Amino acid sequence: MKTEIIILGGLSLLGLSIAQAVAGEPSLRLADSVVTGTGFAVASLMSPGSTTRIDEDDLRRRSLADVSELFRDIPGVVLTDADTPGMKRISIRGESSRRVTIRIDGQTMTDHTDYGTPLLIDPAMIERVEMVRGPSSVINGSNAIGGVVNIITRRGSDGPLASYVGGGYYSGTQGYRSNAGLAGSAGGVDYRLSLSRSEHGERRTRDVGELTNSSYDNESAALHLGYRRANHYLAFKAERFDMSAGTWVEPAPGASLRLDFPKRDQQRYALFHEVTDLGPVVKKLSANGYWRTVDREFSNSVQTQLPPLAVTSDSLDDQRTRGLALQTELELFSEQTTLLGLEYMDDELGSDKLSSTTVSTPMGPVRTTSTAQQQASQRTWSAFLQQDWALAEDWTAYLGGRYYRVKSELEQSTERAAVDSQDERALGSLGLVYSPAPHWAVRANLAQGYSYPNLNQLYSVVTASNRVHYGNPDLKPERAQVLELGWRYEVPRVTADVVLFHTSASDYIDRQRVTDTPAGYQPPSSARLEQWQYININEASTTGLEIAVEWRPDWFVQPHAAVSLSRREFDYGNGYATWNSGLPAASGTFGLRAYAPFWQQLDSELDLFIRTASGAERKGADRSVEDRESGYATLNLAMTFDYRERLSARLLLGNLLNRSYRPLGEMPGLKRHLDTELTLTF
User: Among the CATH numbers 3.30.565.10, 3.40.50.2000, 2.40.170.20, 3.90.950.10, which is that of 2-250+268-371+388-681?
Assistant: First the structure.
């Protein structure tokens, strides 16, 4: 209850102050544009969906031990880590992370696991980030039920040679990060090379202390090469990100459990070609292709006293993805854009598993071992169209559609017979924006989302703890649609975005315990292992209000706020529905930002802010409580210093009051801690 009071009280005071400041404000349409919501560049004010842009200024002021921290203060966004630090994922409007599409330079990063795609990229390579909250499968492909995050990476610099070195220290994990890079451009050629390395120890919390097996480390390298001639631009990108991490498991009486991800390595090679101004009709033609590999190693061991059981399993997965996209922007009608696109993506997943089970009996321990191999693939073809229409001087409509054809195939498996599944689907979206003045707009948006089951949900057999989870080749795709009503206001002193939304989703994929081994699968190695299978079991509806406000008066201190108020109901399809879906009813950030020049060459920014969320509880299909966390509020101070655009420093004093807290879906929060980062540019 206290956290709701903090949120609502802070919002009311800020709203009253802004209302007084808005009167007589000069109008100005901000130059920032977004691409992710419509497929082509549109002023952020005129985007039909709920979009957020994180630009260079936002990146500059953040201390980023983890790139996912960029998104923590966006209304409707929740971070999850499944107790594995360094591999945070994004949940939007209560949708799980596997229902959020992650794109890098417009290319989809798939991840055929239960958790969704983690954000694994060097922050120094990011130019900007665009996020769409809510279903966006018409423009951004399958899995965009919750929304989409598009990370746009940097190209070369303005001069022939620029370089940087940087480092950071993070007291909450006794961790460090170091990075360095070169960039430049000359004679039509531009380039960038970036290297980074980080290592973090055990996470330090106030009540629990050091979290056992919560350390992680990673290293990355990225290369960009581009060449421009006349109206053509050709670019090659190569990225590698290697990571290893442990998983903290909350101690349970009578059981010992350890999970590790000794390896999660990924590589991506991409080629881009863009041509502009081909004639009065063809404004842009672009093509890109990419090859991506992900190698995962997972280790699981569990020991229980009752029943006396010991299970160990090791799994090595290798995922290979090939993608190709063609897109053209046409001007068939005066000052109106027609977007046509084709996309193809081919995922191949191979896995090798070794399992061992030891059962204590009166005759002594009995040990059984088993091995398994699997090869599966999923191919997706799609074509899409997006059209903007200037209905009148103040009205703009956006009409979009996409056709999908997906085919999945279990080509080889030692655990069941080969099988395949497929689906065809047509989706649509309709947006309407009314902007009678250049500084404000209202919008209405109706959009659909679509998520086809991944290869793990369709075919795999996965052992975790004392459970065996079976895939289900008869799964239906998840579907969703959203209706949004929004208002945006942008002037030099005030930026505000308010959206009311309702999302309805069906055919959710969940897991249900089964008494017998599902048809087509081999029985488990031990009869004492619980058996579960993926099924289409539930529906969900979410209604919410998202508010983001920033006021920039000519004062020493400038207030800002971002608030999300949401209700989410699960209907499990078995006669049971609940509002306890794991989504906090209220969350937000309230702060006071100040710009304090110490002397002429030094720019500084200080931000004292409260980050808060109400308590949340999640109940399963059997009405049992699966997870519950109390509300919390933390006080934080962020500081940024820039000297002649050469030396920059970022400091974060987190959890200043040393509160004990744990957001739902994350590990226990850090105790009072200090993050420091320095970057020197030559």
Answer: 2.40.170.20
